[in-house]
Amino acid sequence: MRSRAAAALVALTLFAAACNGGDDGDGSAGGGDRGTAGAGASLGWDGCGDGFECARLAVPLDHARPDGERIELSVIRLPVSGRRIGSLLLNPGGPGGSGVQYARGARTVVSAALRERFDIVGFDPRGVGESAPVRCLPSAELDDYIGLDGSPDSPREVTVLAEGSRRFVSGCRARSDRLLPHVGTADVARDMDLLRAAVGDSRLTYLGKSYGTQLGAFYADLFPDRVRALVLDGAVDVSLGPLEVGASQAHGFEIALDSFLRDCLGAGDCPFAGSVASARAKIAGLLRRVDTTPLTNTTGDGRTVTQAWTVLGVIAPLYDRQAWPLLRQALGRALQGDGTPLLRLADWLMDRKENGQYANQTEANLAVSCVDAPYPGDPAAYAAAAREAEKKAPLFGAYVVWSALPCAYWPVKGEERERIDAPGAPPIMVVGTERDPATPYEWSEALASQLSSGVLVGFDGDGHTAYLSGSACVDRLVDDYLIDLAVPRDGTRCPKIR
Fold first, then answer.
1. Is 280 within 8 Å of 259 (Cβ atoms)?
2. Cβ contact 279:254 at 8 Å
3. Greatest distance between any 2 Cα atoms in the chain
4. pLDDT tens digits for 295-328?
């Protein structure tokens, strides 16, 4: 459940080029001694380029032991350009997305109107990026893990996937054992409250996308009286069981794929002809073939373009409609046997750099997910859930469900969470995109209904998350809410972009 926003467009545009040759609100500016600030202290900011300032915040490793061991969080801000309301905290999703890198793109991921009234603040959540990152495998071994057959259809293939999942978990224990019990969403929400206090705000103003909506909902449930305004864009349904999440998300990817195919069939460079159903059949045939005969990789990096890499390459451009031309080209090449363009798209999705090194997105994603919910410990449960998911998502259902298998062997077991409804919080704005691939629209409907003060805004659009994706309607509603606390009517629907 990743939100990539402008960073995605930059990465995908570069790939395409390669293929073709004063305070009047709730807070005041942070100050104090420079360096690392402890919980309850103000932050000391140092310039870190391009008008940004950076700092470190020390927080308890275990919030149940506030005077015990501490870890440091990496924090960044773009100072306000006009009359200041307070700070706007950002989270791009994941789990595993770097809030520091996301905020570095503040001039494109939030509007000029918001930058004029708020310090734009990002942070790497614990376990992510530059904040005590979880590490599990060297990059070469991570290549092998990601390339495993993620939709096993024989007992032997299940055994191979299970062995790979156990190796991944063993690597996490060897490299990050002390962190693993303390990287859950509730831990991050408590960190976010310490950060809110450190930047000098009495109440939180927040924009969370994708998994960032789950983080925002947890925060509101823990600290309802400290909420000023939360925008939860591309929401997660926090009531779903862990394997239900995978099945539902896979269905969302297939809805998005159908939307892509309808558009593709009207384009001059579309590798398909006829109907959406016939195009889906060709993609299904491609995935069956690559399950036994990998596609060609001309990068020279030695990787095999397996079915897993192919699925990831198809999914990646569905996150943003502006990337659809790249998917047309990549599928055309794949149908001719060349998997290189799909592999490059998968690399972008998995945050693999050109030098073969990974950000710790994949490791952090699993570390957070596995402790946030009680996953079954028997592979047979995943097999049953995969078969059920394939009924609605025949292309991606099995792969997405099986991708959670490491959680079966995770050393820290997640607990069943009670209903998250944030009683007493002021109105919370939930935004859902109707053909969102990664966070299906019904998830936004569900979260808005579960939150005691949830207000739903729907967008008739494609791609992952809605704010600053081209809808002037969504952008106006979000900005007016965050700046002026103007709450939209529940059920407001923003029209399709023409």
1. no
2. no
3. 66
4. 999 999 999 999 999 999 999 999 999 999 999 9
Options 176, 210, 369, 444, the catalytic residue: 210
* Annotated active-site residue in 237, 464, 471, 475: 464
Exposed, middle or buried by CB within 10 Å (0-12, 13-18, 19+), for 293?
A: exposed
Strand 36-38 relative to strand 53-60: parallel, antiparallel, unpaired?
Answer: parallel
User: Which of 124, 436, 462, 479 is flagged as catalytic?
Assistant: 436
With residue 321 as reference, give the H or E element that holds it: none
Write b or e for each residue in 182-207: b if 16 or more Cβ atoms lie within 10 A of its Cβ, otherwise e.
bbbbbbbbbbbbbbbbbbbbebbbbb
Could you state, in order of their start, the residue ranges of all structural domains in the chain?
5-132+184-239+417-494, 139-178+240-350+376-409
pLDDT of residue 416: 86
In the structure encoding, which two tokens stand for residue 178, read together?
Answer: 């002390």
User: What pLDDT shows up at residue 333?
Assistant: 98
pLDDT tens track for 100-128: 999 999 999 999 999 999 999 999 999 99
Nearest alpha carbon to residue 427 among 453, 446, 456: 453
The reply to whether 464 belongs to the active site is yes
Active site residue 369: no
Strands 86-91 and 118-123 come out as parallel
* Residue 86, SS3 per DSSP: strand
Phi, psi of 88, deg, nearest 5: -110, 110
State yes or no: pLDDT of 25 exceeds 60.
Answer: no
The answer to whether 75 and 25 have CB atoms below 8 angstroms apart is no
Tokens 């109105």 map to which residue?
427
Rounded to whole angstroms, the Cα distance separating 346 from 497 reads 28
Going along 162-260, which residue ranges are E strands? 204-209, 227-233
Overall fold of domain 5-132+184-239+417-494: Rossmann fold (3.40.50)
- CA pair distance 386, 84, nearest whole angstrom: 50
Residue 418 binned pLDDT confidence (cut-offs 50, 70, 90): confident
pTM recorded for the entire structure? 0.92
